[in-house]
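Quarterly update from the structural biology core.
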Amino acid sequence: MKYTKLGNSELNVSRICMGCMGFGEAKTGQHSWTLDEEHSREIIKRGLDLGVNFYDTAIAYQSGTSEQYVGRALRDFAKREDIVVATKFLPRTPDEIERGITGQQHIENMINTSLSNLGMDYVDLYIYHMWDWNTPIYDILDGLNRVVKEGKARYIGISNCFAWQIAKANAIAEKEGFAKFVSIQGHYNLIFREEEREMVPYCDEENIALTPYSASGRLSRKPGEADTKRAAEDSYAKFKYDATADMDNVIIGRVSEIAEKRGVTMTEVSLAWLLTKVTAPVVGYLLLHRI
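Predicted structure, tokenized:
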């Protein structure tokens, strides 16, 4: 395994980040295809054995059970100082807004719940999961800065945003003396390259780490080949990719050709391309099986 610095931070991360959205109680939360704790632990242990030290989860993943599974496994199999743990928080709910819970209070509640789920005193990277259009960005940055000052997170990142949003946020943070975002976790792969218009060049200029999530398995097998439980039941992935399937299949077919020619898996080809572009792609357990 190779390692690198995560953007403008002192975090030394593996070039592969294990994405933990596939871990958690399948009866709780958005996804019906997630793995139980026993199988989650096996995969996390395998990742550690392969040198993966970077693990990404979220409070939203299966109502916090992903955090719980990941936290217990990492406490049992690794030393805290040897791993980099990232988790994410959601925007304020309509009920919180109605009750007058501020952005700062919301973030404090979220980080405390996540740390309890993980069984940890701090996370290395705390990620703003998606843009909260109902909360001023100043409140978000102030809340995150308080989390960093309290030692509950070492650094902060952002996910699922536009380049202008992270640029605006970091400009405000610099002006106010707040912690700045050191990473962006966005949607970027061989069949979705929109990030190359503005996000990639902006992050290259500012040394902000790119840690994109995967193509939900679309680039790991030929269309229609050995569909998995996730492929059959992941409605979110269908929403992202079904409408462009004909165009995507041209690229997927080319990945398959290169893989056969080189005697490697399609996953290896897809990740080899991505690793020339980003800091550390977030790789799910199904893809790790194919490496």
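The mean pLDDT is 92.
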